[in-house]
């Protein structure tokens, strides 16, 4: 049993009294809501959960194994039964016979609707095979800052082994899809005692025989990563140390009030934007640091961060010791135009013949030394959530750069998602760990790394629970109450998000 601890550690919130009497699908909702209630476990809308449940087939009346897995869209903290896709497990396993290999991986997404159980209209996500092929009844896939800090470190595999031993494994970067599902299955079969796996540049997979075991394993693994990071970071300068002092809170807000309307006007040419300002301690520690510019230029560490914050932020040059806001305003138009040029060059260097058109080339995140962070989007809620995601990214960079070197996603991977399309990049996208294309004006050219090999026996098992990222807890979202529908669930059609 885990301690019901608070503070910098995640508390075990599982309540046996609440869980008693729940059906398998209801326990999945309860587990998901409980995990999603703390944003240190997973970011808004990020990650997914699943359970394999035996139910009566509505056509034959026979008991069949059904995969309940979080569908496309939605957030773990508030998801209900109608947010989960349901699929026949025997049909999902039969898809292996149709798989023609890595070059044809994208076509497997089209087969998922044919596996639907009980006419459920909720679309299955690209992560469905990852859950289906793990041979355990319950699976959690979360994006905790403490774990992504491991996944985004240059020595990710070695760090995973050091922290977890043989209880948690490691797999190299592979975009989500059918092939990664097969990798996970192979790892589980070769490492039957493992309780989970760290996915490089992605996140955490954990599993268990019961919903409670799966939940507690997830919480334990994250806490163990937090413990390890805290020990390793003691006495070390975070982000290279502070090089400028933050202005006082009233001055920061006055600058934000003066600057944000100017930024908004310059980036709202084609679509109107709303902004959000954040000057919490985690943000100020980063924007005031020596390593602000080199780390910001390296970009995002996992696909979820990219989709919300773009490939990298725009750093506003400003000396809080000599606060000349008018000079910043005078340069803004040129700075924003230069960002657009850089984004276009980045897109052009990575696009392929079937790539969608470039979307809005303006920055989403703006970082200002001594002041804080501005984020902009089409509505206030999205602007705020984008800021939350960049705080996730700051936490990840904090941990990875303190104990190792921070490494972003391969350049090709996020570029293919530049439109926000649900279509994932093709498997031939560069497997290099190089962050930026040589043609990009945002950073000097770097030699490409060697391609990541397929995980043939390369999976290192690793234990269950520790962080130098003191993973600052943000205000957790309240856990939503779980409704208790009858076993004969009716699926209300929901619009996609």
Condensed summary:
The protein has helices spanning 16-19, 24-36, 89-94, 128-132, 145-151, 156-164, 178-190, 211-233, 249-267, 281-287, 292-298, 303-309, 325-350, 380-403, 412-416, and strands spanning 48-56, 63-70, 84-88, 138-142, 168-171, 196-199, 203-208, 274-278, 314-315, 365-368, 372-377. It is an alpha+beta fold.
Order of helices and strands: HHEEEHHEHHEHEEHHEHHHEHEEHH
| Relevant CATH superfamily of the largest domain | Class II aldolase/adducin N-terminal domain
Helix/strand/pairing category: alpha+beta
Low-confidence region ranges: 1-7, 415-497
Helix content: 25-40%
Explain what you see.
Helix 2 (24-36) runs parallel beside helix 8 (211-233), helix 5 (145-151) crosses helix 14 (380-403) and helix 9 (249-267) packs across helix 13 (325-350). It contains 15 helices and 11 strands. The longest helix is centred in the last third of the chain and has 26 residues, at 325-350. The two termini are 37 Å apart. The radius of gyration is 22 Å and the shape is globular. It has 2 domains: 16-233, L-fuculose-1-phosphate Aldolase; 240-416, L-fuculose-1-phosphate Aldolase, CATH 3.40.225. The chain has a 7-stranded mixed β-sheet with strand order 3-2-1-4-7-6-5, sandwiched between helices. A 4-stranded mixed β-sheet has the order 8-11-10-9, sandwiched between helices. Helix 13 (325-350) links the parallel strand 9 (314-315) and strand 10. With 497 residues, it is α+β, with helices and mostly antiparallel strands.
